[in-house]
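Chapter summary example.
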Amino acid sequence: MIQHQLSIEARFRPEILERILRVVRHRGFQVCSMNMASVANADNVNIEMTVASQRSVDLLSSQLSKLMDVACVQIQHQTTQQIRA
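The structure predicted for these 85 residues follows.
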């Protein structure tokens, strides 16, 4: 599987993390790691996420960008790694 690291900036809402995780799952990606932190003004959050799949990460990125309250999605880098279930 190929691992991709995403950086997501979103407006903080109680349901935003659930929406993001639902899109990740529906698009066939597996979450390997995730970190969320508030931005200084506390209205926004930064989410750093590593996901894995054989699918193109561009599909996931474009779907995440369409979510209400998501301001920016950036693909940081990708690595090929064998993941065992």
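To summarize the output: The helical segments are 16-26, 57-65.
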